[in-house]
Amino acid sequence: MRIDRAVLREVPLELREFFEISSGGMQARRVLLLTLEAAGVEAWSECVAGETPGYSYETTDTAWHVLTRWLLPALVGTEVEDARHLDPVPWLRGHPMAGAAVEMAGWDLEAKRRGVSLRDLLGGVANAVPVGVSIGIQGTDGDLLDKVEQHVAEGYRKIKIKIKPGRDVDMLRMVRDRFPDVPIMADANSAYTLPGDLARLREMDQFGLMMIEQPLSHEDLLDHAQLQDRITTPVCLDESIRSLGDARLAIHLESGRIVNIKPGRVGGLGSSIAIHDACVAAGWPVWCGGMLESGIGRAHNIALATLPGFTLPGDISNSRRYWEEDIVHPEFEMVDGLMPVPDGPGIGITPRVDHIEKLTTRKAVFDA
Ligand code: OSB
Ligand code: MG
After folding, report:
1. β-pair type (258-261, 235-237)
2. Cβ(190) – ligand 1 distance below 6 Å
3. How far is Cα 33 from Cα 353, in angstroms, rounded to an integer?
4. pTM of the complete model
């Protein structure tokens, strides 16, 4: 089939709540949406690059540049046998989030062309996936307790709490005292360093956390290995894992025991499957993270999370947890802490194109 057309849009979406992590906060997203047209079908993906280079060096603007200057002009007009693993510029270094947008739209395209769900094309096995919620750093401890209580009542199966130095040990103790049996984990987004913070990180072992996510630098697998050797709480890697190579090295070094797989962060769904397989072979559980996506990115994440190694609840929450109104139909809503997996062709939900078009602030069109 020939890739006939690509459309890249920037769509600003306001979050229902300010979301703060150790590196900064956000109130609104500048979401990039990609559409590919081929074989009479329209495929969608979302680029997860953030507004600032605080999580990764990629941003909405670097991804816009790489996509419009390099990837989409090279892709449009080409003939492809199978739209999985689209890689229009094989010499590209880095920029996995930009590359993932193309690759993930390719999977939706291939699934729709075959008339199968993305879940089935990926080799997924579940009809619904267990999900959790990620709570940003709150203004006060009281606000945090209220949020945890609300989300536990809603049925989320894992409560992730963002931490940073000064808002960590005492705060987690308070939550644990109030909710002795709730599955809780902490995510530091690289806010700590060794050896200075070792004592503080060891104190967190007493709270029975499911894991501590990315405590140390985004490029320090060696320090993570030394930390894992000295604490009992499993270390989960997020920012450190950008490729299969990173995952293999982390497993070899024992830099943790769990990986948070975000397809956007690792260059797409093919790379996510490869990382999943390496983790399963090593006995490491994985779970699917999130980047405050719209329903389009969420649909890809849910399909990925149906693979058998995704045994821990993902950061895959209800559309309402993020948005007043999602840009897909129907919106995502879990039942008893399980997110139903759409079973229509491809991503299985419908982007609200008219609504998206009205919100669009920037658009680039590439025709064959
Ligand atoms: O570290 O997992 C993270 C959001 C933006 C940037 C980084 C992270 C997050 C989240 C949100 O934790 C997870 C979600 O989409 O619900
Ligand atoms: Mg994280």
Report:
1. parallel
2. no
3. 11
4. 0.98
